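Would you be willing to look carefully at the protein I have copied below?

:::
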Amino acid sequence: RRQAQQDRGREVYNSEPFAPPPQQRGNGALHSLTAGGYGPVSPSSTFDNGTLDGADYAKDAKGRKLHNRVYASVTSCLRECGCSGHEMKMDEGPDGRYYRDDFNDQAWTCAPGTGEEHGIWMNMADQAGTIMAAMVWMLLGYSAITITMLARTGGVHPFLAMTYTVLCCLALASHAKTTFTDPGSVPQSAVPMESVRRKMGPEGTLSMCSQCQTFKPPFSHHCRICNRCISRMDHHCPWMNNCVGAGNMKHFCLFLIYTWTCSAFSLCLLGWNYFFCATEECVFTPMLTQLVRVMTLLSTGAFLFTSSMIMNVCYGLMTGIGTIDRLKKKAINSMNESDEEPVPLEDVFGIAGYHTWPFPVDPIFVDYDKVMGYSTPQRLLREQMKEDSGTVVGGDNYSYAPSYAPSYVASTAIHVG
């Protein structure tokens, strides 16, 4: 029966381009993903032994179809340039350092809110924050329309106007991701990590939240507006209508960067048009003159505000002290006694590759529990089950859920997709 399963898996492997390769039972690592995407590896390639590098992988693709050869060449180029994090996939499996956890512990309901029973993260308890978040969209949309009207009258080159519009779209996308992304809420089932418990010893005490009545991870704070404890909470931003924590710090940083770029870019365009352009194309209509005046004031204010926020965020990442913790330390004059470590960029932007950093997509962390500061019994149980099974079989027994983004963690923690 086992031989029949292996033969059936080998037939699927040879007929379907994206089927997992057949595997033997034993202690072999999971060789289900190629270096750079989803698909099988040639059975005779050295990738099965975990020794295939980018050049060998491109060389091994000679016997395949044209689109597979092009895909392999692009993949090897990305890996050599450091723009990819597919080493995780090459070191995945029972004997590897990484494994995939595609189980979704979140609520499946479509109800918006900030509770554990809500499937869509949305803060609806702060009406002022909702208005301020909507104002961000209106102001950025206003600036994009104004630059577009300048391009139609010839005051701004169409390519520059298109570039500004793209930057506004990226800023708005980052804003939406920051608003509707769970900032790192601590569930009721949260438990400290094994490394923290070993460090505390048998006589150690755990921090508990008096509001949530649950474990309170280090650097977390209870937000009265969201009514949740947030892991590595920096502050509650009314312009985002959400907290800024470990879960959405990347999107918040991208929003600040893109908004600062839009402000500086618009001031440069308007300044060049005012000081250096003397042709008839640079003469504004009465309505456009009023729009430009208002936009100049908005761009100046946004430039100054985002500049201060970027410096605040950079200071927090370099010192490892968030805004709330910094204010508390300053109140008791204990800033010089801080022993926090800087926050690595991979704990903010992830390790999926440098090409994913400029875009508001969810990061993939090396150790999800370490970033969040807690684990859950469900994740620990799945980890124990994976360690106890230790067997991987191709064909029908291959478990992989492509509906979620791949989530990799070290063997000491688990990331929920």
Summary: The chain has a mean pLDDT of 75.
